[in-house]
Write a structure and sequence with these properties.
The chain has about 400 residues and is an alpha/beta fold. It has two domains: about 150 residues, Glycerate kinase, domain 1 (Rossmann fold), CATH 3.40.50.10350; about 230 residues, Glycerate kinase, domain 2 (Alpha-Beta Complex), CATH 3.90.1510.10. It is about 35% helix and about 20% strand. It is built from 13 helices and 13 strands. The strands form three sheets. A six-stranded mixed sheet has the order 3-4-5-6-9-10, with helices on both faces. It has a five-stranded parallel sheet with strand order 2-1-11-12-13. A two-stranded antiparallel ribbon has the order 7-8. Helix 1 packs parallel to helix 13. The chain is globular.
Length: about 400
């Protein structure tokens, strides 16, 4: 293909509800090698706080996974997990909220964000406290909930009360009845731990770019439900301000994981961080970028939202510092995807090989990612051949 073997860094996200980041990386590597077996491949599967966050950090630090059964987003028990990081420093638990309240755990016929709950996230935090940790690191992403972290707080002893003093139920819809927040019953061990949250700092709780309007439809909300969610979350924000003197309406990161960011900060005193500020402490992407001739990244969907904190945009921004071109492989290419050219992505392509159902796209995702990656490398090979002809 070229005068020397290329070094290709493969740094993808997972494809939501389809492939993990590791599986996407494997598929891309398979396609690259099919086009040119000489290529030196460096895999750096990335996580953004969503699915795979815990295992990625556990693998990077030689930590351990702890398995627990918790309350899932629709109220049924689910098998979940958290981790204890290895290495030096304070004993740290790592939790991905998606392991207890992710969209993957919400059956398609039960996707109603007015009802789903983060209660299981609170149960994972309590399990981490049982391990005697000094710090809890929580990853926000891939959520199936929009309750502002209310369920999480309820599981830890917070009382969210109606006007008559009874407790509200679970889910975003129940927040419309909220009249008072009582934190006197919170697990006292929370005062002795530091809680850091890796989240998309661009996400806010309310308004045109808030939880209800941007993410509600992705989680099954109808237009009418979106309006109910917005009103409920606005009330939640007002009560938080009145009772706790914390303003979360437009707080950066407050809208992460259906408002879990706001709940963690206001109710538990957590500190919100840009997610890659946390992730890149444990993964060594920048070191590998210095060696790369090409970077291939990937995301389930590439569109105008990608520059707002998604993995391909973060990879492109970092690769740009080293002058390395980036190509993105996407499950689907959506609205205004061309904006990504302005953010360092040199080219992108969809993996879809033909019109198909969503189920077929999920089933054949690995195969089609590999095929698309092979096609990318073969087209690069054509460029090398044209270069050789021009030099002749």
């Amino acid at each position: 293909m070229s005068e020397r073997a290329l070094t290709v860094v493969i740094a993808p996200s997972g494809f939501k509800e389809s492939l993990s980041a590791e599986e996407v990386a494997d598929a891309i590597a398979e396609g690259v090698r099919a086009a040119d077996p000489r290529v030196r491949i460096i895999r750096v599967p990335l996580v953004d706080g969503g699915e795979g966050f815990t295992r990625a950090l556990i693998n990077a630090t030689d930590g351990v996974i702890k398995h627990r059964t918790v309350t899932g987003p629709v109220g049924q028990p689910v098998e979940s997990h958290f981790g204890i990081l290895g290495g030096d420093g304070p004993k740290t638990a790592v939790i991905e909220m998606a392991a207890a309240a992710g969209l993957r755990l919400v059956p398609r016929d039960k996707r109603n964000p007015l009802l789903t709950t983060t209660y299981g996230v609170g149960e994972l935090i309590r399990a981490a406290l049982d391990e005697g940790v000094e710090r809890i690191l929580i990853g926000c992403g891939d959520s199936g909930t929009s309750d502002g972290g209310a369920g999480m707080a309820q599981a830890l002893g917070a009382r969210l009360l109606r006007a008559d003093g009874s407790e509200i139920g679970r889910g975003c819809g129940a927040l419309a009845l909220l009249e008072k927040i009582d934190l006197s019953g919170l697990d006292p061990r929370l005062k002795r731990v530091k809680i850091d949250v890796a989240c998309n700092i661009h996400n806010v709780l309310t308004g045109a770019n808030g939880v209800a309007r941007v993410f509600g439809p992705q989680k099954g909300a109808t237009p009418g439900m979106v309006e109910q969610m917005e009103m409920a979350l606005m009330r939640y924000a007002r009560i938080i301000w009145r009772d706790l003197r914390v303003c979360v309406k437009r707080m950066p990161g407050g809208g992460a994981s259906g408002g879990l960011g706001a709940g963690l900060h206001a109710l538990l005193g957590a500190t919100l961080h840009p997610r890659y500020e946390i992730v890149m402490q444990y993964l060594e992407l920048d070191r590998h970028l210095r060696e790369a001739d090409l970077v291939i990244t990937a995301e389930g969907g590439l569109d105008f939202q990608t520059p707002r904190g998604k993995i391909p945009a973060e990879v492109a921004a970092r690769a740009r510092r080293y002058g390395v071109p980036v190509i993105a492989v996407a499950g689907t290419v959506g609205q205004d995807a061309r904006v990504n050219y302005e953010h360092g992505i040199a080219a992108y392509t969809s993996v879809l090989q033909r019109p198909c159902t969503l189920d077929e796209a999920f089933q054949r995702a690995y195969e089609w990612v590999a095929m698309s990656s092979e096609n990318i490398m073969r087209m690069i090979g054509v460029g090398w051949m044209m270069r050789a002809v021009a030099r002749a």
